[in-house]
Automatic annotation (TrEMBL):
Disulfide pattern: C9-C40, C19-C30, C41-C51
Record bears the keyword Nucleotide-binding: no
Superkingdom of source: Eukaryota
Organism: Thrips palmi (Melon thrips)
Keyword set, alphabetical order: Disulfide bond, Mitochondrion
Gene3D superfamilies for this protein: CytochromE C oxidase copper chaperone
Name of the gene encoding the protein in the UniProt record: LOC117647286
Protein name per the record: Cx9C motif-containing protein 4
Amino acid sequence: MSKRSKDPCKPFACAIQDCLNAKNFQESACVDVIENLNECCRHWKHKSLVCSGMLIGPAEVEKSDVKSDGTSGVEVRKA
């Protein structure tokens, strides 16, 4: 019988649930914890079931405003 390896990002997913429960499900209060999972998934997405289906981009995000000509304020992610 083969030994199953632990999912390296599972503790981060559990930490998100704990944070959301403690903060009355206010995502804005758990941004740092969510980013920790994103960082783990950037590194382990090929080995983590927790990360399957997640769209993970580079770490830093800059937001621009919607312009008066109707073009969108796209989030630009920087590495």
